[in-house]
Specification:
With 204 residues, the chain is of the alpha/beta class. The protein contains 6 helices and 8 strands, in the order βαβαβαββααββαβ. It is elongated.
């Protein structure tokens, strides 16, 4: 498993300390929106310490909760920032009343015992919103050109790039380039912050 960059948040002060240590022992990098013990309303983007989302690519945003709440706490503000950038979210600990599971984003719940494995699994899984947008774009392209719309696309994030595997058995290889442009455009519209997109047709 490659080393991950995990953005750590927590519902309550100190809730994520053990998870951060476990991730680091497994070789993963942990970055934070708030310094431990810092002011709950002053994230690193405001204090000048630097927003982790403005640096290297984040693989997973993780929040650990010691108490169930129906709304994000002040220390969890960064989850909404991560979701705006379509970064997968892991909610660990007291997941009852999880306020982040909107249904249109990659949000996975887990116990505190499974945080490392869950983050690794989520980071290596296809991105739901990206895969759906890319699949819709490829299917629309096929319909437009009179080709069977039996097409499917999987999108993975590898650091700061999106790796796209497009499957369209009935699409002539001569049209793959045009189809790739359509898929790339849909992904750029969804995720303008990504630094690169590689589209391949592995079945060709």
């Amino acid at each position: 498993m490659r080393s991950l960059r995990v953005m750590m948040l927590e519902g309550q002060t100190g809730a994520g300390d053990l998870a951060a240590a476990a991730l680091q022992r497994s070789g993963h990098e942990v970055v934070r929106c708030f310094e431990p013990g810092g002011h709950a309303h002053l994230c690193n983007a405001i204090t000048g310490d630097g927003c982790p989302l403005r640096g290297e690519s984040i693989d997973v945003a993780l929040t650990v909760r010691n108490q169930p709440t129906i709304r994000p706490t002040a220390l969890e503000q960064g989850i909404s920032c991560a979701m705006q950038r379509h970064i997968p979210v892991v909610v660990a600990g007291m997941t009852l009343l999880n306020p982040f599971d909107t249904g249109d984003h990659d949000v996975v719940e887990c116990s505190t015992d499974d945080i490392v494995l869950t983050c690794e699994r989520v980071a290596s899984a296809p991105l739901g919103p990206h895969s759906r947008a890319a699949t819709a774009a490829l299917q629309a392209f096929c319909v437009q050109h009179g080709v069977s719309s039996d097409a499917d696309v999987e999108v993975l994030r590898e650091r700061d790039r999106l790796v796209v595997a497009a499957h369209a058995a009935h699409l002539p290889s001569s049209m793959h380039g045009m189809a790739a442009v359509r898929v790339l455009s849909a992904l750029r519209e969804l995720d303008p912050d990504t630094r690169g997109i590689d589209v391949v047709f592995p079945d060709a």
